[in-house]
């Protein structure tokens, strides 16, 4: 079974569930309660929009338990003495890996939480999650040519430029080594 929670030093990264996505889309007043976190004022951020939410919900509904962990993930800033646990971003995979072990990741951080290294930490958590599955051999990511911050996040996480996607965005790739298991 795929782990549905990943921890990084400052983040709890939680796999989206049908219940969370349904609340986010249709009962937003319950979403932060179910999530156990405060929401930023500009939620949802960036490319994580209603279309992405519907896509993740549709995929989780169609795929059942085997789809869990292969789509959306929520990035929650762990509580500190100064701030409560807060939803700061979203990321995830565009689905399970293909026959060659390749899957695509994406991520978005809420405006108030940018330029603090949290996107880098979120992507590191997603790489860690991909390795933990033992199924992913390569991660792919795309970003706009003018999004230098996103490019830096990918480079800091071991991604390398790999040309352009058909839509003109920049393509980045990274090999993934399976996580070592302890017996």
UniProtKB/TrEMBL annotation:
<feature type="domain" description="N-acetyltransferase">
    <location>
        <begin position="33"/>
        <end position="183"/>
    </location>
</feature>
<dbReference type="Pfam" id="PF13302">
    <property type="entry name" value="Acetyltransf_3"/>
</dbReference>
<protein>
    <submittedName>
        <fullName>Protein N-acetyltransferase, RimJ/RimL family</fullName>
    </submittedName>
</protein>
<dbReference type="InterPro" id="IPR051531">
    <property type="entry name" value="N-acetyltransferase"/>
</dbReference>
<dbReference type="GO" id="GO:0016747">
    <property type="term" value="F:acyltransferase activity, transferring groups other than amino-acyl groups"/>
</dbReference>
<keyword id="KW-0808">Transferase</keyword>
<dbReference type="InterPro" id="IPR016181">
    <property type="entry name" value="Acyl_CoA_acyltransferase"/>
</dbReference>
<dbReference type="InterPro" id="IPR000182">
    <property type="entry name" value="GNAT_dom"/>
</dbReference>
